[in-house]
Design a protein that fits this description.
The chain is mostly helical. It contains two helices and no strands.
């Protein structure tokens, strides 16, 4: 799953929590 800055929304961050943030930090 590719995550773009545009795809990142407050709701998504709350649902994915650490998983989303880790993907952001890696990229």
């Amino acid at each position: 799953m590719k995550i773009s800055g545009v795809d990142i929304r407050p709701g998504n961050i709350i649902e994915y929590e650490g998983g989303l943030w880790k993907a952001v930090k890696i990229q």
